[in-house]
From TrEMBL:
It comes from the Archaea. The lineage of its organism: Archaea, Methanobacteriati, Methanobacteriota, Stenosarchaea group, Halobacteria. SUPFAM superfamilies: UDP-Glycosyltransferase/glycogen phosphorylase. Pfam families: Glyco_trans_4_4 (PF13579), Glycos_transf_1 (PF00534). This is Group 1 glycosyl transferase. Residues 19-163 form the Glycosyltransferase subfamily 4-like N-terminal domain. It comes from Natrialba aegyptia DSM 13077. Keywords: Transferase. One of its GO terms (molecular function) is glycosyltransferase activity. The keyword Transferase applies. Residues 168-310 form the Glycosyl transferase family domain.
Length: 353
């Protein structure tokens, strides 16, 4: 299948969560032998309009990210000339979805919009038009699906595709040192690590050890809070770790705690749960993390800081595991097959075979 991805910016412009998601999807399809083309603004040196990187063709629709008007004007005609089987556009910028939709009309092929919603989704007119202009809207979680439906589309126009994980890779990594509680996230103003530290401090007389993975502007403040709470000797701030090192930590941990206030999809938490951790989630309105543990016998949801500490103790009473097959449906191969099934169904609905 020839798939055209549309995003004025890629991970090679800015390494954001939204761009990482799109890169993950196109690499999934590439690895299955599909022909992948990315229509973006140019991020490479030289005057050539295309750039090959790891079996993916990047097309410079305009010369740079500041040339947005040029990108939007040229995009429909460039897409129409490329004759793709499907057009998959990032909805990070709604106007590029509208341009991609016009290109799909000219090319007589379906178009989908991928909404990640990091930071929320305003219900402005451009986003409403974008959501209604495509054949299907893709989202990572029910949280984002709710936001997209508020743009005026029906439930049938929205499909949920979680961020995938590599189950085989998780199995192949040797478990790391044992930890009772683990937290992993960028330590910024939405991390809400203080909830976990305060909960742990309530049980400082018990024998436990916790690990915090991640770095960011709030790290020093959190380290100071651990000292103020007199638990700094039992909380290890591990900083930024490679993926394999994070997986090793997850396989060695008993409980994974998710307290972040904002999270459209908890990819690191999913890896930890697949690596055997018991999941404890502090509910927040702008976080989808609770969706992973609903209806699961090794998952707990709390609604307040007061509950968190006791819930972590309850979670610690469950059996220790270093792998959990419950999350096998989130594997890369399964998620990729779901994308392909949806692409083909959209083509069939449009009378294209």
């Amino acid at each position: 299948m020839r798939v055209a991805f549309v995003s004025s910016e890629t991970v090679f412009h800015h390494d954001t969560e939204t761009n990482q998601r799109l890169q993950t999807v196109l690499e999934l399809l590439r690895d299955a032998g599909h022909e992948i083309h990315v229509y973006c603004t140019q991020f490479w040196d030289g005057e050539h309009s295309t750039f090959e990187r790891e079996d993916i063709t990047y097309h410079g629709v305009s010369v740079g990210p500041d040339a947005r008007a040029s990108f939007l004007v040229r995009l429909p005609f460039v897409l129409a000339a490329s004759n793709p089987d499907i057009i998959h556009a990032s909805a990070d910028r709604p106007k590029q979805v509208l341009a991609a939709s016009l290109g799909a009309t000219l090319a007589r092929t379906p178009a989908v919009a991928d909404w990640y919603g990091h930071g929320g989704l305003p219900t402005d007119r451009w986003r409403q038009l974008a959501a209604r202009s495509v054949d299907r809207n893709f989202v990572p979680s029910e949280l984002v699906a709710t936001w997209v439906r508020k743009l005026g589309v029906t439930e049938r126009a929205v499909d949920t595709f979680p961020n995938p994980i590599d189950i085989d890779r998780i199995r192949s990594v040797t478990p790391g040192e044992r930890a009772d509680v683990l937290y992993a996230r960028r330590l910024d103003d939405g991390a809400n690590l203080e909830s976990l530290l305060l909960a742990l401090a309530e049980h400082r007389t018990r024998d436990w050890r916790a690990t915090v993975i991640g770095d960011g502007p709030e790290r020093a403040a959190y380290e100071q809070l651990a000292r103020d709470l007199r638990i700094d000797d039992r909380v290890t701030f591990a900083g930024t770790l490679s993926l394999d090192d994070r997986i090793a930590a997850y396989r060695g941990a008993h409980v994974f705690a998710q307290t972040a206030e904002r999270c459209v999809f908890p990819t690191e938490m999913l890896r930890a749960l697949a690596a055997g951790c018991v999941g404890v989630v502090e509910y927040h309105a702008n976080s989808s993390a609770h969706e992973l543990v609903e209806g699961w016998d090794r998952g707990f949801r709390t609604t307040s800081e007061d509950e968190l500490g006791d819930t972590i103790l309850d979670a610690g009473e469950l059996e220790f595991r270093d792998i959990d097959d419950h999350f096998a449906t989130y594997d890369r191969d399964d998620v990729r097959d779901r994308y392909l099934t949806t692409y083909r169904a959209l083509r069939e609905s449009a009378g294209i075979f």
